[in-house]
Amino acid sequence: MTKQEEQTQHHIDSEIHDSANDSKKSASTKKSHGEILKDQICEGQETYNKKPSSIILSSMTAGLEIGFSYLLICSLFYFLKDTFDNTTLFKLIAFVYPVGFILVILGQSILFTEQTSLLTLPVLNRKRSVKSLFKIWSHVILGNLIGGILMALTLIWIGPQLKLFDLNTIETIAKHVTKPDTITIFISAILAGWLMGLLSWLLSSATETVSRIIIIFIITATMSFTGLHHSIIGNVEVFSGMITSESIQFLDYIRFQSFALLGNAIGGAFFVALLKYRAFVYNVDIN
Fold it and tell me: In the UniProt record, does the keyword Transferase occur (predicted)?
């Protein structure tokens, strides 16, 4: 880093710090852009400071917990299949879809899409390297996928045993998720990643548990109602279909997972972390 770049970075850090302090001194409870940005950077740094084993275990927990959304999705779909057509059922799923996200986020497990922008901000702020970003992303993704696969294997057995849903329900949901072409899944995943990055940003400005639950519900229900592709819960949906149905092949799973992960990463890293950070930096006087 050159001397000029160091001076610029010093001005940015000072401005973030001063903005956060000014907001705390204010009688208003509304957080400033700078205070939210500081909170996000600090939270991202906390994750970087954790041991890899801790990150993977917490991420695996998130993959397991997100499976409760899938349990409710399948149960609702099966329970109402004789009452509504499939198009309506896929819209009604929005009411139960947020449950797993609420469990994960309030329980502070590490979910890739919720952490994407958080982990990118320290890199933009020159506190971490791009290499460290990809390394920690790989740990989080690995944990999320392992947890999701374990939960999928559990649910495809316990669901039919408890008569909560059948294998046909699993197949229908998996085919619905993988039906769009690759470019559609990719763009859809970018939008989902964008929303999840915004979710993380909005949660930094909310302090009460009820308001946090409402924010999580609104964002994730929007993703479900519009059919946007989320790589982690989608992992459970598509893997379950691949295991139980010949209609979903391994290549379908790889195609979905690859482009959903890539899209989610771009959505959170670019449309939230980069744009929010640059919007603040461009307002900093470096003279």
Answer: no
Instruction: Let me know if residue 238 belongs to a domain.
Output: yes
pLDDT of residue 234: 98
CA distances 147 to 53, 197, 201, Å, are 14, 21, 25
Cα 208 from Cα 140, distance rounded (Å): 27
Is residue 211 one of the residues assigned to a domain?
yes
Question: Within 13 Å and on the Cβ side, how many CA atoms surround 23?
Answer: 18
pLDDT at 32: 87
- 237-262 pLDDT, tens per residue? 999 999 999 999 999 999 999 999 99
Q: What is the pLDDT of residue 29?
A: 61
CA contacts within 13 A on the Cβ side of 57:
5
Q: Is residue 43 part of a domain?
A: yes
Q: Which residues contact 99 (CB under 8 A, 6 or more apart)?
A: 68, 69, 72
Hey, what amino acid is at 62?
A
Type and span of the H or E element at 177: helix 167-178
Tokens of residue 266, six digits: 């771009």
Considering the domain boundaries, does residue 182 fall inside one? Answer: yes
Domain of residue 276 covers 31-281
